[in-house]
């Protein structure tokens, strides 16, 4: 008789230790979600543990596997959703994650699994050595940065089970990182078959978007700060203590995921609590934008989705501005739980601290704490699109007349040298010259910043509908791939549906077909399967050739 697979993290999470990645979160779909009698996260964990024991076979759990809680959501009606990662013979399983869905009384309703393929390997002893895997990944990083003399290149292999790419197999997941000629970080993760040495997949590790104080882009904005002696610190005690510091144009010194030296984040201080001049030559001005972007992103997720902070635990992150030298990038880093902004090169980009860039990058953090969409192939495109969608929604929610909401990404940071007026366009993504408007079988071969176009197009159609129109003074024209006419249901409903799909139904391997199913499930939960909203989701996906 098979023993019950061990469930790790359930009790440790309640004790508040660092030994588990579980995030305890109540996501209310209706007022009064924490009312007496409704399940608590602790109750949900107990229900889920019982469900795993009873339905181990259906979930593909065997004696060789363990599970660990990543996230817990309790709906307003008491429905529970518990997300797990799994290991096989103590090795992480890529594509092993799943979400268990439970009725308010704890009865098992079903599960969404990243893969249904049975996990069984003849051995977990690799034929390919770790040093050889490291060499292959190092060469891949060099090939991805042609013409660059990379410095301080390191590669760190980790043995995993790859269940994302067909039949499960033993693999090396190797994070390769280095500094380019300007001292800015470059990084790539390479997945290598541990038996044959063949490359399975590779993707960039740094998730990026290529991109009362006086800000560079948002005018004069309100800021919550912290008194410090006779001055003030740019630290917000009302939003988990998030703060903004000066990286002093330095970069991190990291051995892959372990950073030996972090670029500083020297807190900004001010004597009279009026920050910045609105000009780029004042270092505090970019800090105002960064802090404001963090505030606006926090407020969007809390006001709209009931989520306090990126991890949903009420804790603030921090920002570093003036990172590197002429660094044309901004990125979210789970390792430091922080946002980092470059100053741009002044030709193609200005400082990358605009509101939608902040919302985009910090939404990568939300994704990593929920569905953890793999950053390659179709899941990678959905990861990027999630950040574009929420970046736009953060900008709309902020309702700032100096930077009004629109369906453009990065329009404030681009300069004449970039050649167009935004980084990406949700109404017709191909306007950037590279992104896909419609799904095709080759979509997964595109860079994730371009395969994201299909979901961005879906999102615009779902919110606004097809055809030409002007929204907020900006002209858009969104044709459909099948010649259909789509009617929009509004931005608010788009955000609600996508957030629920991300946090409840999507997994690390969700592709576009899976995203259609996840958003339909979310729309059914929120509005009913016979609703106009449910039908609109299906129509919008069909209009971009998904489903």
TrEMBL record:
Role played:
Extracellular zinc metalloprotease.
Family the entry assigns: Belongs to the peptidase M4 family.
Keywords attached to this entry: Hydrolase, Metal-binding, Metalloprotease, Protease, Secreted, Signal, Zinc
Q: Which GO terms describe its molecular function?
A: metal ion binding; metalloendopeptidase activity
Signal peptide range in chain numbering: 1-35
Q: What is this protein called?
A: Neutral metalloproteinase
Q: Which GO terms describe its biological process?
A: proteolysis
Cite the FTP domain residue spans from the record: 67-109
Q: Where is the active site?
A: 361, 449
- Gene Ontology cellular-component annotations: extracellular region
Q: Which is an annotated Pfam family here? A: FTP
The segment annotated Disordered runs over 210-236
Cellular compartment(s): Secreted
* Gene3D superfamilies in the record: 3.10.170.10, 3.10.450.490, Neutral Protease Domain 2 (1.10.390.10)
Q: Which intervals hold domain Peptidase M4 C-terminal?
A: 371-546
EC number(s) per entry = 3.4.24.-
Assign the protein's first listed, main location to one coarse class.
secreted
